[in-house]
Each structure stands twice: as structure tokens, then as C-alpha cells.
Q: What sequence folds into this?
């Protein structure tokens, strides 16, 4: 068919302006420097992550060998050489070494548990939000049931029934966190599914899983990053709290929560034994929370 | 509106039934283990089976569940294995003790967090806002057992101002409540303050606040009449939902300070393996949580004219 | 006339950002005389709203007035502080905003929100304030003011909300009323009512009006003087007749040529887009801001120095160094030879199509609550056919069911009843997930919102390639890439865009990608749901033209859904007019746009603002609101608002379909002779001369 007039030679497709500022917390990761709060948080986390990673190669005393009890920070051992930089605990174990190894333990299990919760929560949220119907009813109801347990009660029920082990902690964290993640993802998916690009994908006959994983998932990623930071912090607290209650990972490997529980009543003798692990856990959680706060601030800017 | 409330109520009931069914299934499906807990670890299989038969455990699961839940609704949760008395006899006093604790926490936390949140959200990005925001991030980053450690270290061991335990051994002593309340408030107020701030900040940048300003209203009226009313809807629901979080925190704090409350009871029951007591405590805890959710939903509907006059 | 009521002189407004101060408005002059209505017109981002909020002294934390002065009623507005400023706002100067819903406090009754104004500004007591509010509600012609006083904002329709906001502004007895895009969020028939109301009240009360809009037609029809803004500057000011009839700035001319006129068809008066894009505030070029897009650009003169506003006639100024040299008459677009598209066989046939949505949508919730719930009757018995290479426009206001119809067609929803045959295959009851891939490929869609049409996470190339792979039968990487490049050429985008992310594209560019994506699989039918309505005027024309060209070249059938009658007149071969889920009129463009009309079509034509000064139009205002689709009125769907209603028969019986030769059908009780006797709504000089 002949054209009535030539295609317009003019168009607005001129050289485009440089990419506008990236939006969303994901992009914000690249702009951390803009927020001193986020930088502080990232710094704290980097500090602990490095320690945890390097624990096996650092020149540390064995964390589980009893030596001289109730040494204060900076005290020198009887052999005249070994320095207990952060003192020892009531059983004479080196505090510095126990703190470093403890960070490794809490970070590993917190990350693992949060990751599991995310896989379960994101998948359920995508299905509930995008597919809707009876799938949504079932998933949302299950989530409501789990969310109606005060978290600590849920942990206690799971741990007393299944016993205290790393795997069961992961399971308990998944039970406790996945419903919350599911709700966030479900809300995002509900919002996104009416977007034209999702309708366009449907209109070209794409299957539901492809739409959920290729069209939706990349776009829910952003808002989840802030949540993931907060949740990592909270999971850290949870694991330490379980340790404190004696429901956590079995001893003797160092666990910040257990360290507090064992030594806190002896506070009148040597305060550092409980204060140091309490400070450690606080700083780690603060790191996660500051990073989350900073990321949110950056992503809301402009 | 009434329809919505009825629907919420129905879903609340459904959740309670499901939760009780799950709890019962978790703890009483394995009958021999139940008998083992009751008769002690050294009982023989024959003894356990005899006990099970005597106590009606040979009936179908659903029959037993129905009986259990019917009794529970009437306040009969069975016999505590640890305390050797009916569960109800220790459960209610302990719940009351925790109620006192929670009431004190709320009485302090609500005004503080609302005031700080509104103050921060009124002028987003101001110096006050920044200080309050960072302050609340920091306080929410200190887990209860850590802040309890710090505060005990300072106020008990160093200064000797307060008692380190709150067992109320010599009768009710208000001074013993100070530390547990302080720890819980410190951890919880930041979250509510931040939510209030976010809500307030959002309202203050909304077009209808612009309308109010450009109508020529005095700033006081803009904030008090147009701002607050809308900004406090979200924090209200969050405050009620804090009850759920408080129940978690209460366990740690009560264990830490040896306060004889509901949280410590649940913890004792769990470590002892006192199944009837765990069941009862978990059921009550979930009931409180679900009820608070219900109240928060209804409150939200009442506060929000868009739902009230849909 | 003495001193004007409002005078902005050399006004410059900037925003503080992280990367320094960005000028939003610079060197802006404006006068509004007493009792005068002045229009401020320009595309999005030109700074017109910034000017409005500067006058209200409400620029937010980051905005500030960098230079110049604003005088109001002889007083220096910029020197006002505190109490004085507060008394001015909502008192001597009232404002009406773009989004009426968001502008009203959701948790306060209308009565309380209105009564605040007289209490604050007039010192009235509670009872007196209430009485004044009630009286004002009557003046803005709201039905049942007593009930409205007790209502909450969410219980009112958009049009009613805007009337409340207008009442609120008028309660302060303002001498100046600032209207910031007051009807942009509303339907045309509602808009027409609001505009007439404002005009009437302003005249009655002697209020001056500053009317801000992107809609040239609206400004022409309502204002006495106009100021055209471009990139933060006033580029032309003067009396409306002079500016629209004898413009002296190339941008004004470009804007007017880019707007379709309901009186013209695509072949008689082609749309001429303005090339290029609006510069971002921080990146304005030296010299004339418009020079990179101007057809009269002269290097060395237009691109350096400060271009001043110059006298171009009595009460007429323009910011152009060359306006004396331009032959304005010759610069008018030439007539193009008409291309007769010869429609081929029927590609798409729709018969008795019906789509109801059940309410509530959740089945389990319905079970708990009991009761079957109501149904939204989105589409009621739709019949039509579209032929190959034909452009069929579906016209109607929001809620008429046109978008639902598109969804059913695409298989995103399934029909409740009736048939849709696509190239002979029945698809009406088959959701897209269960259609054969070959069928899916026959029918593609272009969506409304350019900011949602592309997935922000994937590159442009990836998104087009996905369609090419699915429907083009191409597997080979290189072949797919080559085809994607071809498609980018087709929509006139540089090939470098292949690797761009959607956020790096402007709205128009995104819509081009969406067009490329829709045509990538060589579909027989393309459904375009308001493809240009979210774009700026100058870009609209380019996209509309592109769409039409590709459609003609490929012989594709185009279903063009729109509320813009001008655009429909320009684009379509045939038109369907929808109201409350029914087709009330259909026929060729010429048939639908000239008598006999369905009374709704007539009202719709009259409501659409016309920018062309040479077109005269008959005014018809519709009363009332669009009825709810859950309980449509019995009889004729239009009977509740119809100005030509006959009587009882309209309320009880569904009107017959009257056929006026060929395919022109009207759903109406009025006898054909009477319908034929109706005078045309729009008269262009050419037609009048016939």
C-alpha cells in the first residue's frame, strides 16, 4: 500500500539526556556515599563481616579452651606473654576470640535463615498477588495464622517441639518471617500486575510463571532491599535472643546470647563479660538498621 | 461497615480455630510422648498405654480436640505437670502481672512516641526531625536483653539505685517494675515514633494540607485540625499491634528480671516440657494477638471516614 | 484602566537541588487586569504551575523567588509576611487545584471545610459561616446542598468535588481566582459544565481569573488574554484572538498545528508535530529556548544573548528576534492529497458482546458475607465489524466501557456473552492464556500510560525481541537483532536505543517503543487504548502520525480508543460512540461528526474545546453525572442527562437502532426526520461557505 505522505522526518528521538538519577533502594546501593547514615551502617557491617570471615586466620586464642577466669580487658596471663585484650569469662575463655567467633556464627545463621525466609516469602507473595483467587485465599490465610503468633511464642513452640539446632532455627525464622515478606511482595505484585507491561506480556500469551519471574520479580527487588536489611537485623536479634533463653544453638561454641545469659548475673564481679557481647550485638543490629534507614532515605530523595 | 466488622470477626474466629487445631496437633498427636511427659521419663510403655486408655486418649483425634477446646473455652486447660495444680490457677495471676507491666509500658510509650513522631514529622528534614529519627533508630537497635544488661550494669551494679531482680518476693514493689518497663519502652517507642513521623510527614506534604494553608488558615489550625486527625490514624493501628511485639519482648524481660509474669511462665513451661501449660499459654498469647489485630482493624474503620461511610 | 490587579515583573523562580539551583521560571512578565480572565498555557514542565504557586507564595521548602516582583492590588506581594500573607491567601486570592479529590481533607465533612473560610476571613460565627457555605454550594449548582454539607469528600464524584473546591475559593470573596488545570482530571462533558460555571460566577462577582491549562482550546474559549509559556519563559502574550489567529512566535504556531481540530479530518489538515523535546530546566540552551526545535532558526541570532519580549502589535508581545521576517501565512500547513484507504475483508466481527463483572470479586468473601452481590455492567450488547486496513475509533468518556471492551478483545478478560470472531476464529470466550499462539499474534495492543507500558527492568531491545521471537518465527540471535533494529527504524528511534532502559526515555519515546513492540509480530489487528492521551500536545501529534503511517503501510486494522474527538476525527475511518456500555452511534467519521447526531454525540462534540479560532460552535451543557454501571437507568442509557429527552418512552424502552443509509446507526427514540433536522455543532468557515 502506498503511503499518503512520507514518514515524519522529525521526531523527538534526539540524543537523550544523560540517564536520570537512578531510583529505588537497589540503585541506592550505588549511591551510598550520599548518606552518612547509610555509610556508618555499611561501615559497621563491613567491620563485623571482615572479622567473621577472617576468624580462622586471625591470631586468636581458642574460643573454647578454659584458661584463667575473670580476667579484665588488657590483663596478661600467668605465662607473662598472652594478653587477654578483652579479658576472659567466668570459665576463663578468651573474650576477644569468643566475640569474633560468635559474630561468625550469628552472621552465618542469620543470613541463611533470612535467605530461606525470602525464597519462601517471595514465591508465595508472587503467587498470591499475581494469580489471586483461591491461591491467594489459601496463602494469605496461612500467613495470617502464622502472623497471629507473637514471634517469640512461635519460636518457643517450634524449638520445644523440634529441639534446638541450627536447622530448626532456620525453620523457625522462615515460619516467622516469610508471612511478612509474603505480604509485602503480594502487595507489590498486586500493584504491578495491573501495570500495562504486565498486561502486554499477557496479551502476547506469556505463561504465569514467566510473568511472575521475568516481569514482576525484577521490579519487586528494589523495595525488598530495605526490608531485607531490617529483617537481617531482626533475625540477628532473634538468634541471640534464643541463645540468651537457652533455646539457641547448642554450646560450647561461642554465642553472643548465651554469653550474656551465662555471665550477666555475675555482673557485680566483672561487668565486661556480659557488656561486651551486648555491645557487639547492639552494634551489629545498629549497622543493619542504619544501612536500611540510609537506603530508604536515598531512595526517597529527588 | 458492620458487614466489614462481621467479616473481620469471622476471620478472627477462623484463625483461632486453626491455631488451636495446629497447637493441639503439634503437642498431642504423638500420644506416647504425652504419656511420657506426664508419667516421667522412666515410665514403661505399658504404664503409658494404660494411662492413655484411662484418660480417653484412645478416642479419635477430632473428638479429643473438640473436648480439649471446649474445656479451654470454659477456662479448664488441664493440670500443669510442673506446678501440679490446674493450669488456670497459675495462668490468670501471671497474666494479670504481665498486664500491669504492659499497662505501664503503654502509659509511657504512647505519649512519648506520638509526641516525638509528630514533632519530627511536622517539619521533615529539620534538625529536630533528624535528631529524633536517628535517636529512634539507635534505641530500636538495642535488643531487650542487651539494654537490660546495660541498664543493670549501670543502675544496679554501678550505682546501686535499683534492685536487679523483679521477683516481687516481698510483695508488690513498684521499684522492681522500673527496669523491666524501661527496657521495654526503650525498645518499642522508636518504632512507633518512626511510624508516626512517616505518617505525619506524608500528611503534611499532601495536597489537602496545601489547600488548608492556601485557604489562609493559621499554622496552628492547619496542624492541629487538618494534620493530626489524618496523621494519627496509622499510628493508632500500629500502637495496638505493638501488643503482639510486646508479648515477645515480655518473655525475655521477665526471664531476665525473674519477674513472675506470663512470659516467664511460658518460658518455664517450654523448658520443662509442660505440654498442657504450653498449649494454654500459646493459645492465650495468640488470642491476645488476634484480638489486638481485630481491635486495630475496627479502630481503623472507625477512624477512617472513607470506610465508615463507604 | 489604571494599575492591573496582578503584575509579575521579570519574575525568576528557582529550585534548590542537590546539584545546585535550577531555574524553573525566568524573566516572566504577566498582568491580570481587574475583572479580566487571563490564560497561562504551555506544556508540562514549562513552569506555569510554579508561577501560580509563586503568586500564592507557596513554593515549598526548595523553591524561592530569585528575582523580580509580584504586585497585587498595588501592594508588594513578595514583601508580605505572616499574618498579612495569611489573610491574602484564601481571601483576596483564591485557588482551585488540579486534583479535587486530593485537595479536600478526607476526614472532614464538606460543610466544616467550607465553613472554615468565612470564619477565618470574614470573622463569621459558626451559624453564619454555615449559612454562607450553603449559599455558595447552591451558587456552584450542586444538587441538594444540605446533603453535600454533611458528606465526606470520597462520597462525591470528581465533578462535584471540584465544584466544592471552587465554592471554597469563592467563599473568601477573592478578587483574583487562580485555576491550576482545574478540569484536567475530569471528563469533557463535566469539564464543559465547570468551565461555564466559573465563567459565569467570575463575571457575576467581578473576579479576575488566572486560568492555567495545557489545553489550548479551553484557554481560547474561556480567556480574554493569554500568555504562552515555553521552558520557563513567557514567549507570547496578547489578546486571545491575536495570539491564536495571528501568532508571532513559532512555538505558538507549532502548538496550534499539533492540535487536532474536531472540524478537520486527517487529509484536509495534517497534524504537524514539533520536533525534538522540551529541554530540562537545568539544560536550557543559550539564546532562545525554542531554537533547537524551531523551523526558523538562524545561527548566530537565535542561539546567543538574551532574547527580549518585543512589541508585535497592540497589546501583543512575542519573544522572537525574527517574527517580522517570517511569512506567517505561508507557514500554515499545506493541504495534503487525500489518500483513500480501501478497506478489505472483515477481520474482526463482534456480535452481541456483553461483559459483566461480579461484585465483590472475592468468592470466599462473598460466601461469608452471603448474598450474590451486584454486577458491574461494563459492556451491553456490542455489535460491530472492522475491516482490513481500517481505523475504527471507539469514543466515550471514562466509565463508558471502552477499555473493558479492549480487554475482552485481547482475552485479558472473557466475555460474559456474545461472540468475537478474529479472522474467522471465535475468541470471545477464550482467555489469552488459552488462545493458540498464532491467534494471539494476530491481535496486539498499545497501552495508555507510557510510564507503565515498558518493564523498567529490561532493555528496550530485549522487550521488542521477546515479541519478535514469539511471533516472528525467528530463533537466530542475529536475525532477531536485525529485526529489532528494523523496528526501531520503523518508529524512528536511533538504533542505540536497543540497549537503553525505559527510564532513560521520554514519554513519547517510550510510546514509540510500545508501537514497535505491538507491530513486531505483524498483527492483523492492533488495539490502541488512548495511546497519546498522557503525552504533551506537541508529542501527541508525532505519535499519532507515526501510528497512522505504520498502520497504513502494513494494512493493519486499528482499533483506536480515545476520548479526544479531535484526534478521532483526524485518525479514524469509522467511529463508534459508547455510553454506559452501549454503542449509541456508529458510522464513518463524516457521518458521526455531522447531523444527524445521537444527542450524546452532539453534547460530546460541543463539550470538546476547540483551539482553532475560525471554528464556531453551538453550546450544549449536560446536566447530572454519569449513572453507575451497577444500576444503569432503565430504557435509554442516556435518558438521565439527555437534553432532547422525549418523555416516558425514553425511561421505559430501550431505543430502536435507527439506520441512516450505509453503516450509520443511531440508538435513539427521536424520529429520524427530527434528528436529521439538527444543525451542525461545529462550523468551519469552509463548510459555512458551501
A:
Amino acid at each position: 500500500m502506498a503511503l499518503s505522505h512520507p514518514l515524519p522526518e522529525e521526531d523527538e528521538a534526539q540524543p537523550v539526556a544523560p540517564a536520570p538519577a537512578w531510583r529505588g533502594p537497589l540503585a541506592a546501593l550505588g549511591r551510598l556515599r550520599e548518606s552518612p547514615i547509610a555509610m556508618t551502617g555499611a561501615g559497621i557491617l563491613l567491620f563485623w563481616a571482615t572479622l567473621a570471615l577472617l576468624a580462622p586466620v586471625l591470631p586468636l586464642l581458642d574460643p573454647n579452651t578454659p584458661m584463667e577466669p575473670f580476667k579484665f580487658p588488657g590483663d596478661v596471663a600467668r605465662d607473662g606473654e598472652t594478653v587477654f585484650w578483652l579479658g576472659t569469662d567466668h570459665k576463663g575463655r578468651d573474650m576477644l576470640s569468643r566475640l569474633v567467633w560468635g559474630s561468625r556464627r550469628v552472621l552465618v545463621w542469620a543470613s541463611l535463615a533470612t535467605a530461606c525466609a525470602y525464597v519462601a516469602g517471595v514465591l508465595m507473595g508472587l503467587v498470591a498477588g499475581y494469580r489471586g483467587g483461591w491461591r491467594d485465599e489459601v496463602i494469605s490465610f496461612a500467613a495470617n495464622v502464622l502472623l497471629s503468633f507473637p514471634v517469640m511464642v512461635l519460636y518457643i513452640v517450634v524449638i520445644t517441639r523440634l529441639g534446638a539446632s541450627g536447622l530448626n532455627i532456620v525453620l523457625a525464622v522462615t515460619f516467622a518471617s516469610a508471612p511478612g515478606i509474603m505480604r509485602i511482595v503480594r502487595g507489590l505484585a498486586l500493584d504491578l500486575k495491573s501495570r500495562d507491561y504486565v498486561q502486554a506480556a499477557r496479551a502476547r500469551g506469556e505463561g504465569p510463571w514467566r510473568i511472575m519471574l521475568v516481569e514482576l520479580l525484577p521490579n519487586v527487588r528494589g523495595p525488598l532491599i530495605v526490608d531485607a536489611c531490617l529483617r537481617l537485623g531482626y533475625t540477628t536479634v532473634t538468634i541471640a535472643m534464643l541463645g540468651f533463653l537457652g533455646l539457641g544453638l547448642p554450646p560450647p561454641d561461642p554465642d553472643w546470647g548465651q554469653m550474656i545469659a551465662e555471665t550477666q548475673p555475675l555482673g557485680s564481679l566483672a561487668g565486661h563479660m556480659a557488656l561486651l557481647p551486648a555491645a557487639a550485638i547492639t552494634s551489629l543490629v545498629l549497622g543493619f538498621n542504619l544501612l536500611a534507614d540510609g537506603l530508604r532515605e536515598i531512595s526517597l530523595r529527588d | 461497615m458492620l458487614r466489614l466488622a462481621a467479616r473481620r470477626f469471622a476471620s478472627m474466629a477462623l484463625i483461632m480455630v486453626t491455631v488451636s487445631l495446629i497447637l493441639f496437633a503439634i503437642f498431642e498427636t504423638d500420644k506416647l510422648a504425652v504419656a511420657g511427659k506426664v508419667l516421667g521419663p522412666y515410665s514403661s510403655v505399658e504404664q503409658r498405654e494404660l494411662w492413655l486408655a484411662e484418660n480417653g486418649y484412645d478416642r479419635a483425634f477430632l473428638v479429643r480436640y473438640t473436648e480439649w477446646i471446649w474445656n479451654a473455652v470454659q477456662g479448664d486447660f488441664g493440670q500443669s505437670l510442673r506446678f501440679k495444680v490446674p493450669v488456670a490457677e497459675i495462668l490468670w495471676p501471671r497474666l494479670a502481672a504481665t498486664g500491669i507491666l504492659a499497662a505501664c509500658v503503654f502509659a509511657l510509650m504512647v505519649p512519648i512516641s506520638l509526641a516525638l513522631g509528630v514533632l519530627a514529622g511536622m517539619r521533615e528534614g529539620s534538625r529536630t526531625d533528624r535528631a529524633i529519627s536517628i535517636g529512634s533508630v539507635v534505641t530500636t537497635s538495642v535488643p531487650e536483653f542487651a539494654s537490660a544488661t546495660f541498664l543493670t550494669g549501670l543502675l544496679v551494679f554501678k550505682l546501686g539505685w535499683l534492685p536487679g531482680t523483679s521477683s516481687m518476693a516481698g510483695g508488690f514493689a513498684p521499684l522492681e517494675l522500673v527496669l523491666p518497663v524501661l527496657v521495654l519502652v526503650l525498645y518499642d517507642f522508636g518504632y512507633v515514633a518512626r511510624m508516626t513521623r512517616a505518617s505525619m510527614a506524608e500528611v503534611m506534604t499532601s495536597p489537602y494540607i496545601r489547600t488548608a494553608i492556601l485557604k489562609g488558615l493559621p499554622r496552628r489550625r492547619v496542624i492541629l485540625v487538618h494534620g493530626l486527625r489524618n496523621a494519627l490514624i496509622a499510628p493508632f493501628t500500629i500502637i495496638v499491634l505493638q501488643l503482639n511485639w510486646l508479648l515477645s519482648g515480655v518473655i525475655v524481660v521477665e526471664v531476665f528480671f525473674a519477674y513472675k509474669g506470663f512470659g516467664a511462665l511460658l518460658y518455664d513451661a517450654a523448658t520443662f516440657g509442660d505440654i498442657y501449660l504450653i498449649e494454654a499459654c500459646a493459645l492465650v498469647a495468640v488470642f491476645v494477638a488476634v484480638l489486638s489485630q481485630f481491635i486495630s482493624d475496627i479502630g481503623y474503620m472507625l477512624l477512617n471516614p472513607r470506610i465508615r461511610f463507604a | 484602566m489604571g494599575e492591573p490587579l496582578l503584575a509579575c515583573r521579570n519574575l525568576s523562580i528557582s529550585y534548590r537541588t542537590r546539584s545546585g539551583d535550577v531555574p524553573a521560571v525566568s524573566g516572566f512578565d504577566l498582568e491580570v487586569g481587574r475583572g479580566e480572565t487571563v490564560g497561562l498555557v504551555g506544556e508540562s514542565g514549562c513552569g506555569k504551575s510554579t508561577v501560580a504557586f509563586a503568586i500564592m507564595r507557596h513554593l515549598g521548602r526548595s523553591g524561592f523567588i530569585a528575582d523580580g516582583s509580584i504586585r497585587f492590588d498595588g501592594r508588594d506581594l513578595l514583601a508580605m509576611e505572616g499574618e498579612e500573607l495569611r489573610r491574602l491567601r484564601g481571601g483576596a486570592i483564591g485557588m482551585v487545584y488540579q486534583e479535587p479529590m486530593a485537595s479536600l481533607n478526607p476526614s472532614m465533612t464538606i460543610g466544616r471545610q467550607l465553613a472554615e473560610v468565612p470564619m477565618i476571613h470574614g470573622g463569621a460565627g459558626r451559624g453564619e459561616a454555615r449559612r454562607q457555605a450553603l449559599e455558595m454550594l447552591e451558587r456552584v449548582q450542586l444538587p441538594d446542598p444540605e446533603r453535600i454539607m454533611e458528606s465526606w469528600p470520597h462520597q462525591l464524584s470528581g465533578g462535584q468535588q471540584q465544584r466544592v473546591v471552587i465554592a471554597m475559593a469563592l467563599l473568601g470573596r477573592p478578587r483574583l481566582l487562580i485555576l491550576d488545570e482545574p478540569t484536567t482530571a475530569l471528563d469533557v462533558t463535566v469539564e464543559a459544565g465547570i468551565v461555564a460555571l466559573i465563567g459565569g460566577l467570575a463575571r457575576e462577582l467581578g473576579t479576575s481569573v488566572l486560568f492555567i491549562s495545557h489545553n489550548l482550546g479551553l484557554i481560547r474559549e474561556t480567556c480574554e488574554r493569554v500568555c504562552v509559556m515555553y521552558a520557563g519563559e513567557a514567549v507570547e502574550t496578547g489578546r486571545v484572538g491575536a495570539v491564536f489567529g495571528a501568532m508571532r512566535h513559532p512555538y505558538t504556531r507549532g502548538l496550534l498545528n499539533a492540535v487536532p481540530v474536531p472540524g478537520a479530518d486527517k487529509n484536509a489538515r495534517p497534524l504537524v508535530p514539533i520536533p525534538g523535546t522540551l529541554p530540562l530546566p537545568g539544560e536550557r540552551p543559550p539564546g532562545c529556548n525554542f531554537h533547537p526545535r524551531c523551523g526558523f532558526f538562524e545561527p548566530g541570532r537565535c542561539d546567543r544573548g538574551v532574547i527580549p519580549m518585543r512589541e508585535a502589535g497592540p497589546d501583543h508581545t512575542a519573544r522572537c528576534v525574527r517574527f517580522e521576517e517570517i511569512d506567517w501565512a505561508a507557514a500554515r500547513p499545506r493541504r495534503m492529497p487525500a489518500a483513500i484507504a480501501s478497506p478489505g475483508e472483515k477481520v474482526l466481527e463482534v456480535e452481541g458482546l456483553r461483559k459483566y463483572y461480579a461484585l465483590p470479586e472475592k468468592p470466599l468473601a462473598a460466601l461469608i458475607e452471603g448474598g450474590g452481590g451486584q454486577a458491574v455492567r461494563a459492556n451491553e450488547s456490542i455489535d460491530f465489524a472492522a475491516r482490513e486496513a481500517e481505523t475504527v475509533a471507539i469514543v466515550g468518556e471514562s466509565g463508558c466501557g471502552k477499555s473493558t471492551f479492549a480487554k475482552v478483545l485481547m482475552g485479558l478478560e472473557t466475555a460474559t456473552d456474545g461472540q468475537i470472531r478474529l479472522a474467522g476464529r471465535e475468541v470471545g470466550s477464550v482467555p489469552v492464556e488459552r488462545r493458540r499462539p498464532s491467534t494471539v499474534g494476530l491481535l496486539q495492543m498499545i497501552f495508555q500510560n507510557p510510564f507503565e507500558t515498558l518493564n523498567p527492568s529490561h532493555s528496550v531491545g530485549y522487550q521488542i525481541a521477546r515479541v519478535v521471537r514469539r511471533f516472528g518465527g525467528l530463533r537466530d540471535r542475529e536475525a532477531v537483532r536485525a529485526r529489532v533494529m528494523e523496528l526501531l527504524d520503523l518508529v524512528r528511534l536511533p538504533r542505540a536505543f536497543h540497549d537503553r532502559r525505559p527510564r532513560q526515555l521520554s514519554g513519547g519515546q517510550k510510546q514509540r517503543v510500545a508501537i514497535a513492540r505491538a507491530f513486531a509480530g505483524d498483527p492483523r489487528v492492533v488495539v490502541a487504548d488512548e495511546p497519546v492521551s498522557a503525552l504533551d500536545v506537541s508529542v501527541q501529534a508525532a505519535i499519532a502520525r507515526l501510528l497512522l503511517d505504520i498502520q497504513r503501510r502494513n494494512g493493519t486494522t486499528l482499533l483506536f480508543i480515545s476520548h479526544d474527538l479531535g484526534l478521532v476525527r483526524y485518525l479514524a475511518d469509522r467511529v463508534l460512540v459508547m455510553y454506559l456500555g452501549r454503542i449509541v452511534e456508529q458510522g464513518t467519521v463524516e457521518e458521526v461528526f455531522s447531523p444527524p447526531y445521537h444527542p450524546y454525540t452532539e453534547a460530546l462534540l460541543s463539550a470538546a474545546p476547540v483551539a482553532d479560532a475560525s471554528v464556531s460552535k453551538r453550546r450544549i451543557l449536560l446536566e447530572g453525572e454519569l449513572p453507575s454501571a451497577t444500576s444503569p437507568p432503565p430504557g435509554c442509557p442516556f435518558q438521565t442527562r439527555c437534553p432532547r429527552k422525549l418523555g416516558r418512552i425514553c425511561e421505559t424502552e430501550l431505543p430502536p437502532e435507527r439506520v441512516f443509509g450505509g453503516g450509520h446507526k443511531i440508538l435513539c427514540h427521536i424520529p429520524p426526520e427530527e434528528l436529521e433536522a439538527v444543525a451542525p455543532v461545529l462550523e468551519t468557515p469552509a463548510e459555512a461557505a458551501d
Remarks:
- The first helix of chain C runs from residue 48 to 55.
